[in-house]
Amino acid sequence: MSPRARFYRDNLGIALLLALLVFCLFDLTNIDRVISNALLDPSTGEFILRRSQLFETLTHKWPRVLPDWTGELAIIGALLSFIWPRLAEYPQGVRFAEQARLAPLLRFTTTYRRDLFFVIVAFALTTGVIHYLKAHTSVYCPVETTLYGGKQLRYEWFENFTLLHKAGDGRCWPGGHASSGFTLLALYFIARRYRWQHAKALLCAILVLGIVFGTTRVLQGWHYMSHTFWAGIFVWLSTLLVALVFYGRTQLDTEPQPRVVRRQIPVGAVRIGQKNAPAS
């Protein structure tokens, strides 16, 4: 198999296969409702953690800081990246930046300008895709439906999907909170570009983070479990598209460089080897 085919098999084919599995296992069955029903309080019929303000703060409000700050820092860094090339034209400006200890930061942002803009565009596209799907499927959250005390009927996303206009007022599919965690997948593609040896560990950590983000909303009755999986799939595909535009396949289709351990050979051993070497 060629490197090109292997790349698209691993990065596109597996994602599409997972989408098919989620569709068949969740959207065409009652597994979502079985999971959500198991989270109800038998005495009240409500989700146990729905009205817990502490749980809401710890799992919904505070965790947003991580993706939010990542995006904000990328924007600030991208703006700063234009300063050093202009400043370098003036020796006095360079001396001022050095004295103010700003030079290392300005050099860093200039060096990694493309990566900073990649994060910005990836975040923007994934956010736009998620919002588009929410508006054009009009899926209501579990607690908003008649199944769990709400007033809206439950529909699957494919029953309401419209391409060019909003389908209604529902805004629950895919999971928004889960997608905010998955947006950090942009950092994984940067790690792949530089062949960081811990890139796969970073990928696993981000996937776990996104699933945790989504699962906490399932526990509160604001999402079904499949909403989290769909969020991860769409964020992955969107981020992959942006990564291909910014870096190209060849920069992403590289394995992390293994750490090379160089063993020093004693000088005496070299001399002995040379002395006893057979004559050619």
Order of helices and strands: HHHHHHHHHHHHHHH
- How many DSSP helices? 15
How far is the first residue's CA from the last residue's CA? 43 Å
Query: What number of structural domains do the residues give?
Result: 1
Give the proportion of residues in helices. Answer: 55-70%
The Rg value, from CA coordinates, equals: 25 Å
| Sequence stretches where pLDDT stays below 50 over 5 or more residues | 269-280
The count of β-strands is 0
Q: How big a fraction of the residues is strand? A: under 5%
Which geometry do the CA atoms define?
globular
User: Which structural class should the secondary elements be placed in?
Assistant: mainly alpha
How can the largest sheet be summarized?
none
Chain-averaged pLDDT:
91
Question: How does this model look, in words?
Answer:
The protein has 280 residues and is an all-alpha fold. It has one domain (3-80, 112-275). The chain is 65% helix and 0% strand. It has 15 helices and no strands. It is globular and about 70 Å long. The chain starts with a helix and ends in a 5-residue tail after the last helix.
